Amino acid sequence: MKLWVRGRYPKKGTYMAKSSEQDKAEGTLYKVGGRILQTIGFLTGDRKKKVKGRLGRGTVKDREGRVKGLFRQ
Description:
mainly alpha; 73 residues; single chain; 0% strand; 3 helices
């Protein structure tokens, strides 16, 4: 049996938008992580890791940051 203990003060549902630079940086990090996962899957022969590395969300985050940058100017 697992018990889930919550903090005394729950977080409020506030959302702050990220800047385009932050989205671009996150996209780059996700791309690198996906490539590493893809390489590990290739070297070990694990097809699931290889596919998971390809389907990363790095490109989406990177493009989101670029679009934000276009509207900012």
